[in-house]
Amino acid sequence: MDLDKEWFFTLAFSGMRPGELVALKKSDLDFNKNTIRISKTLYSEKNNMKEYMPDTTKTNRSRIIDMDESIMKMLKQLVRSNDRHKMKYRTGIEDFHDEDFIFQRSNGYVFRK
């Protein structure tokens, strides 16, 4: 899945760090208020998608960022796409890491650049 556009615009218009971006989950987005809550970052010592640890942000504080409506619409489409894709794995035939990451690989694990 190519997430370059969503990755670029979200980083550019939010000021968040890449580790904070990949840690975003569906519950961190408020589409009614057009905000993103940043409360964590992801750390992977070996840069392995299956071996990651949630960590506090650099400032050890969560923050709410107001976002442009067009970017939130783009993220909403991504969430919907992720949800549709996840339903394919409900049969239990294939392994799917269900953590509701916004930027996720096809297997649900975190998408890192």
Please summarize what this structure is.
Residues 1-113 form the Tyr recombinase domain. The chain is of the alpha+beta class and 113 residues long. Helices cover 31% and strands 20% of the residues.
Number of domains: 1
* Proportion of beta-strand residues: 15-25%
CATH H-tier superfamily: Intergrase catalytic core
Order of helices and strands: HHEEEEEH
Strand order in the sheet with the most strands: 1-2-5
Individual helix count: 3
Report helical residue fraction.
25-40%
Structural class: alpha+beta
Q: Which value, in Å, is the CA radius of gyration?
A: 14 Å
Tell me, briefly, the overall form. Answer: globular
CATH class identity: Mainly Alpha
CATH topology: hpI Integrase, Chain A
Alpha carbon gap, first and last residue: 12 Å
Biggest sheet architecture: 3 strands, antiparallel
Query: Ranges with pLDDT <50 over ≥5 residues?
Result: none
- Give a count of the beta strands, DSSP E runs of length 2 or more: 5
Named at the architecture level, the CATH assignment is: Orthogonal Bundle
pLDDT average, as an integer? 84
